[in-house]
Amino acid sequence: MPRPRSYLAVDGGGTKTHAVLIDARGEFLARGKAGASNYLKLGVNEWTHTVYLAVENAIAQLAEPPEIVRAWIGTAGIETEKQAQEAHASLCHSLHLPKERLCVTNDAALLRAGMNGPGIVVIAGTGSVVHGYATSSQNTTSSIQVGGLGWILGDEGSGFSIGRAAIKKVVSSQAGPELGGAVLTHFRLDSREDLLEAMYSPEFCPYHPATLSRTIISLAFDRQNTEAMDIIRDQLKILADQIMLAFAGVPGASHLILSGGLATQKPYHIMLLNLLQQNGFPSISTHIIVDAAEHAAEALRKNQIEYGYL
């Protein structure tokens, strides 16, 4: 008896990796998770292991391993054809897939799947990036990127940048008691000196400030804390400017897609959309995609992707 046919998509980000399997009718089969899978940070070997683990965790939930008809891996940190080719070769070997069945791109490309016409893709989670996708008269796709330079040089409007801004206010003694207390409580610390020391400890990683972002969002929107609200607004103003830059480079853009752990939170994306409107951003079709992997798996099934684009 032949194995069941399935379509696999993996969304790899700065915090976690999601793998989703659907069947030939589009029915959800299984989901697997693993840790962070930013390609630039991990390198090809550790990245391959992380993606493989997420896929295996999904397959382990099924009674028998399915036949993977097509697979699409979209991951943060892949920005060049060379990186995509290196990752593709490694993962084909690891997953035992013929090369023609596997596509490897950056994570923003997952969200473009099924987009009818030019548009803008925004990811705001642990990190952030804005991509503009244009279609030429020859019906080929090109892309431009604004932001997405990582936690050292960018990631404006992301969980990391929001958390870092709050931490800076606390360690510089500029935070009020509610914001300061919330930040110290989040990290289970007693003083700003302890917080500063923790941020420069050998165990520090960009994920630590990013974990604080949900606390800041709750302070801002649930408790109406003005300091927290200012932090979020300042970061979103920069992200809105990046979206406007991408929009200017994509003639006729008719879609705006938002995704990522922060962008899918309603108060966050409402504020972002309001800032865009104030900047003169036109009223175009806007979509909030909560599950990029499931979205991409369905696009694979419907053959709505262009293999090879980043």
TrEMBL record:
<feature type="domain" description="ATPase BadF/BadG/BcrA/BcrD type">
    <location>
        <begin position="10"/>
        <end position="289"/>
    </location>
</feature>
<dbReference type="InterPro" id="IPR002731">
    <property type="entry name" value="ATPase_BadF"/>
</dbReference>
<dbReference type="InterPro" id="IPR052519">
    <property type="entry name" value="Euk-type_GlcNAc_Kinase"/>
</dbReference>
<dbReference type="GO" id="GO:0045127">
    <property type="term" value="F:N-acetylglucosamine kinase activity"/>
</dbReference>
<comment type="similarity">
    <text>Belongs to the eukaryotic-type N-acetylglucosamine kinase family.</text>
</comment>
<protein>
    <recommendedName>
        <fullName>N-acetyl-D-glucosamine kinase</fullName>
        <ecNumber>2.7.1.59</ecNumber>
    </recommendedName>
</protein>
<dbReference type="InterPro" id="IPR043129">
    <property type="entry name" value="ATPase_NBD"/>
</dbReference>
<dbReference type="Pfam" id="PF01869">
    <property type="entry name" value="BcrAD_BadFG"/>
</dbReference>
